[in-house]
Every structure is written in C-alpha cells, then in structure tokens.
Amino acid sequence: MSSATLDIHRPSAHVAEVWLNRPDVRNAFNDGVIAELTQAFAQLGTEPQLRAIVLGGRGKAFCAGADLSWMRAMADYTWEQNRADAQALADMLWTIHACPVPVVGRVHGDCYAGGVGLAAVCDVLVAAEGMQFCLSESKLGLLPATIGPYVVRAMGEQAARRYFVTAERFPAAQAKTMGFVHEVVAADALDAKVAEIVAALVANGPAAVRACKQLVKDIAGRPIDAGLRAETARRIADIRASDEGREGVQSFLQKRAPKWAA
Questions:
Q1: How far apart are alpha carbons 130 and 55 in whole angstroms?
Q2: Pair 59, 160 in one domain
Q3: pLDDT of 66
C-alpha cells in the first residue's frame, strides 16, 4: 500500500513499514504528507494483528521539516488558515502518538523542525551516527509549538530550554545522552538494529505490548497515590486473568514457546 508521499510495506502480518517518500525534498512536510500520515496511522492502529510499525524516510534524510513551497504558500495565509494548518499537524502528531501499536523510528541524515516532532512521537528511536537534529524554528522567527509537547517529553525540559531557543544543531550522540534517542549505530547497521528491536516486539505478548505502551502514557508524571496504586493493581490483575496472560505464564512454566510466537 503506497500513496503520493508515503511508501507503506507489510513485510509480515505483524509488521508495517511507513516510509516518507519525497527524497527530492529530503522528505519535507506539506499538507499532503500530513494528511496521508494521519490516515495511515489511524488505519494501522485499527489492525489487531499488527505488533510493530517502523517509521523511516527514503533517500538521504529522515525529514527536513517544512517543504519550502508549502512555506511560500503559507506566507499569504490568513490567521484562520494558519490555525487550521497547524491544527492538522497537531492532529497528525497525536494520531501517531496515540497509535496503540509501538512505533520504531529509523532516523538518518537530517531531522529538522517538524521532523524532530515526528521522531519524538516514536516509542523507540534508532539513529544513524553522524546525523543531525535541529529545532530550527526560532531562526525563522517561529516556534516549535505543535511539536513542543512531544519533544519536551522526549528530550526533557532542560534540554528543550536550550535547543528551542538557540536552534543549534545537535548530533545523534548528544540526542542519546539526553535520552531522546535510544540507540545510535553506524549507518550501515541501522536496518539491522531496527530489525532487532522489531523482532523483540513481535516476540512479546501482543496485548501486553499494547498495554505496556498505554501504561507508560497513563502513569508518567502522576503522583504515586492510593488511586494510582489501585489502578495499577487492577491492570495487572486484568492481564493475569486474560487468555494471553494465562498462556504466557503457562508457556514459561512448561518451558515452551507461547502460542503467539507461532
């Protein structure tokens, strides 16, 4: 399944690959890319058999931010048009962030502005050595508003305080130090590392993986009060009593592969 701006592959029933496919403009955003990403992830999120989604970019870069032609058109937008345009980007980021299936980001080359937001909504981020990130909006007199909530959560407030205002480039190694990137590997090892992480996801209990992703979102930043303790106790009881939970424990005790591994 492919579209004008995306290349979507299904290497197996359990894995989908979504590739930004505008290499001539370093996979820069425009309204078409935003609409198609929103539609793709909304659809993929409804597929119960899916266990992992890989998000990457064709060509020399992951995503260089906003398309120049689109930016030229936006120069003549009214406030209302700017608001609607920004809302579409915000909705796209939320759709990927809220997707119940874990998303593995495969990042190489340049990752600028909105591209950093796209990387930030991935659950696991693997970057190629030597690549550069940049929150470049302030250089243009703008700000990373719609991507901000995800980027601040992913890199931390203190790092965001610097890179939002300076618009400095920072390499993958620095991004890993701040916790934004999980793995940094040589460019020729990027696909192998992504495949390793996808294999780990596929090997785990499908419902458990989705529940784990949701758990992190639901408890991050919350006080560990009586309500949260009760909620987490209920969640583990629910999954222990489920068919998948029972099968997982039994397969472990019986020293055999669980049924979902077949």
A1: 19
A2: yes
A3: 85
Three-state SS for 29?
Answer: strand
pLDDT (0 to 100) of residue 185: 98
Domain boundary among 186, 201, 216: 201
Would 1 be classed as within a structural domain? no
Confidence at residue 3, expressed as pLDDT on a 0 to 100 scale: 66
Judgement on whether residues 182 and 77 belong to the same structural domain of the protein: yes
Residue from 219, 33, 228, 203 nearest 115 by CA: 33
Domain count, the chain: 2
In a domain, 55, yes or no: yes
130 and 105 co-located in one domain: yes
Q: Give residue 68's pLDDT.
A: 78
Range of the domain at 169: 6-201
Is the pTM higher than 0.85?
Answer: yes
What would the two tokens of residue 133 be? Answer: 């990130």
Mean pLDDT of the 170-185 span: 97
pLDDT at 262 over 80: no
Do 11 and 17 contact (CB within 8 A), yes or no?
Answer: yes
The span from the CA of 147 to the CA of 111, in Å, is: 13
Name residue 131's amino acid. M
Which residues face 134 on adjacent strands?
112, 169
Give mean pLDDT, residues 49-76.
90
Within-domain flag for 215: yes
On whether both 137 and 244 belong to a single domain, the answer is: no
Closest alpha carbon to 94 in 232, 222, 235, 217: 217
**Residue 117 corresponds to which amino acid?**
G
Which has more confidence, 70 or 85? 85
CA dist 197 and 201 (Å) reads 6
Q: Is residue 190 part of a domain?
A: yes
109 vs 159: CA distance, rounded Å: 21
56: helix, strand or coil: strand
